[in-house]
Amino acid sequence: MGLIERYRARLPVADGARIITLGEGSTPLIQLQNLAVANARNVSLYVKYEGLNPTGSFKDRGMTMAITRAVNAGSQAVLCASTGNTSAAAAAYAARAGIACYVLIPDGKVAMGKLAQAMIHGAVVLQIQGNFDDGMKLVKQIAATEPITLVNSVNPYRLQGQKTAAFEIIDALGAAPDFHCLPVGNAGNISAYWIGYSEYAGQTTGACNLCDGQCAYLRQAVTDKRPRMLGYQAAGAAPFLRGEPVAEPETVASAIRIGQPQSWELAWAASRESGGWFDEFSDTDILATQALLANREGIFCEPASAVSVAGALRDIEAGKIPAHSSVVCTLTGHGLKDPDIAMRQSAAPVTKVAANPDEVKRVIFAEC
Ligand SMILES: *Cc1c(COP(=O)(O)O)cnc(C)c1O
């Protein structure tokens, strides 16, 4: 079941609309078991593994809504700027709908898996001489005058789809967690989670860019608690820490290599209303956390996703997240998106060995 079907009563989808879905959502919420920092403080630490969506990232939640809306409004083509995952999702859902898809990607630093997805789904891929923020400016200009639907997260239907991840977490845990940790790039997702948590708690929020707090969903509260929203950035691309846009964002976590977040006001509203905070991490910390999750917990996520867990662990250790808290971290995308980075930082090299049992045994038992 896709998320529109699962949460239709809380989504702006017209009766009789043609639904464009690939069965997105309902991703696993996995409790981490082997991280000493969390265990020592009795913190219940969960990851929402969004890499298991159909195209391997949370962008599918937004895209099922944005493409459904576009198709039912008669649009024949969609357009986005992307660091990779938005283009992969847009290309797949556009293919499913039978409409055209155009994507602008930055000059370099797009993970190979994401590019492969956009290409195999038949999107027209334009690599611009500029970064994501330049691409964003271009697609907004073009969509303002041409008959083509913009499907970046400035499209309010994107956040409406993405808010369902918060519903799933409450539905799974029976209550909101105390803290929710997210990587922050364009800042749509942290805003979307806050919309979802607020809606389930029957509260209005300045993070909602669709309904101005007037929507009927607010009358159907299922909980009275909302988490504090913690947003984490890469140090080289941390406008929320600087308090202003960053002109030349740089980080190994290419999905959050963004200097001018489009949901700036919404994300500040989420942080302020929830009593949360922002923090930043070096590329070294980010990669170390990606490797930690992979080899201690068996969970493979993208570098950008690992920032959420890096943040949770640091703040648990520092006591900013108190002992006995419940914490959910969103793992935004699958590690297979970017195999080059994983290979480069793998601890164990590949050992070449002759194809006979004695040689294989010699290597396996050499350390014993
Ligand atoms: C898009 C993306 C992000 C950032 O989400 P925003 O809504 O832009 O803040 C983080 N991680 C991954 C893997 C992404 O694809």
- Characterize the largest beta sheet: strand count, sense, and whether it forms a barrel: 6 strands, mixed
Distance between the termini: 49 Å
Let me know the average pLDDT.
95
Structural class label: alpha/beta
Read across the widest sheet, the strand sequence of neighbours is 1-2-10-7-8-9
What is the H-and-E element order? HEHEHEHEHEHEHHEHEHHEHHEHH
Strand content: 5-15%
Shape by Cα distribution: globular
Bound molecules: pyridoxal-5'-phosphate
**Low-confidence segments, ≥5 residues, pLDDT <50?**
none
Radius of gyration: 21 Å
Write down how many β-strands occur, each being a DSSP E stretch of 2 or more residues.
10
Share in helix: 40-55%
Protein topology:
Elements: H1 3-6, E1 29-31, H2 36-40, E2 44-49, H3 59-72, E3 77-81, H4 85-97, E4 100-105, H5 112-120, E5 124-127, H6 132-145, E6 149-150, H7 156-162, H8 164-173, E7 179-183, H9 188-200, E8 228-234, H10 239-242, H11 264-274, E9 277-281, H12 283-297, H13 303-317, E10 326-331, H14 339-344, H15 357-365
Parallel strand pairs: 2-10, 3-4, 3-6, 4-5, 7-8, 7-10, 8-9
Antiparallel strand pairs: 1-2
Helix pairs in contact: 3-4, 3-7, 4-5, 7-9, 8-9, 9-11, 12-13
